[in-house]
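Morning run. Coffee first, then this:
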Amino acid sequence: MVSRPIAAWAMVLGLFLGTVGVPRVRAEVFDAAIKPVGSDNFLLAEFRCYLPPAVDPVRGVAVLVPAYNEDGRNLAADPAWTTFADKNQVALLACHFQGDAGHDYSNARRGSGQALVRVLRDLSVQTRRRELGNANFMLWGVSSGAQFAATMAMEKPDRTLGFVAVLGAYWLSADAQARKVPGLFISSRDQADGAVDRTRKHFTDSRTLGANWAYFETGSSTEALEGMQSYGQDFISGSMAARQRAESAPGSNLQTLSQKDCWVVPHDREAGSPIPSVELPRNALPQSSSFPSRELGEKWIVLKNTRWATGP
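And here it is:
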């Protein structure tokens, strides 16, 4: 594990103040890796952690998981994500998983999810930021990374603030606890192999059971990845705001969102405002999206008028 050097004067200042960590006047980046053990479903798990330039403990961790076998560690230097981290006072954890036909790391319940938990513990020691070890996290995943994000909500619902799953194809039904975690599914008409239909079915089946999830369908994969990134960031930061009080200690218990806490938008709505979830008839749940805040629902309506392709 390798970290970038810290300025000597900052180390002296940290010792002088008697703090556990070292006050940071600039962002820091740390690399870490986890080796598979036993029947773990990954061959390689490498991570890059970005810490924003601040003294206060980070409020959470944004986990970024790219498409199958892609090295996403460069996302820890992507200005769109570092700006997000700085603004929300969260760490970034950019991931590089590798698998093969016998090691499907997209299922976080088979070992890859525990690799994420383990690396946060390791980084809490390496960075001297103890809050990382128990920090709650939000996830943004693409393709196989989308499946990982969705199943991480099943593996650790008590620590998952929310997730955005982009261009995935889902084959594991969410359990009751995972359905309580705010999630946004973004698909595209140009996905192959029936992925859009599987995503729609996964979403509508789960919404029928009251999942706190939203859905958006674009006309192209580029639009899903790039055009919806800003809204995806708003969704996970909004989920954090709804479920973890600003004054709470990092890693504190998350608020479970009930129907009375959420706002919904029927998919046939092109104007107007979100409505409280409790006002929506139950038989209308599958054709609606749920949001942890009214503001997120309002932004979704605006996007629907400009970027929506076809709905479920």
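The mean pLDDT is 89. Good start to the day.
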